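Rather than argue in generalities, we have chosen a single entry, letters for residues, whole numbers for local backbone shapes, without further comment.
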Amino acid sequence: MIRCEIRGENIEVTDAIRNFVEEKVGKLERYFNDVPNTHAHVNVKTYNNKMGKVEITIPMKDITLRAEERHDDLYAAVDLNIDKLERQIRKHKTKINRKFREKNPEAELFAALAQEELEENDTNGDDSGIEIVRSKEFQLKPMDSEEAVLQMNMLGHDFFVFNDRETEGTSIVYRRKDGKYGLIETS
């Protein structure tokens, strides 16, 4: 079961909002075989101009799903985020099934989808002083550069650090200003 941790900024999270978010996020469970102790982190924020922003992050063992949407209607923002997350899941599942069908244990993460869903194609400073304001620690997972680019795009980041499955070294993929991708390999 996917449990929701909902936090509001500049807004009180009412029971109606909480129930709506939990219901929508709960529908994502159908895409997975097993989701023990999975938490969805949901941030709901409103601004002075009545615009709202909803962020949903679902960190799992082999994949992190993330979507963020701004909209005048918070309920519509939740719906748009769920659509984004479903596209990410389908895209990742299609890639896993195509490339790693028999040799990768990640294929067991996803439940079977209808064939039409599998075939669906997505179309989708100041340098005066250096101050580190946040630090993160994470385990590097073995993958190839294509998987790393997919993960980077799902997270909405401009770079992604990973263990290269082929070279067994640490590598970085990044988005270039021209919209293409670059790869940095370490020796």
Residues 2-109 form a domain with the Double Stranded RNA Binding Domain fold (CATH 3.30.160.100). Residues 92 and 98 are 10 Å apart (CA to CA). The helical segments are 15-26, 74-99, 115-119, 145-155. The first strand starts at residue 2 and ends at 9.
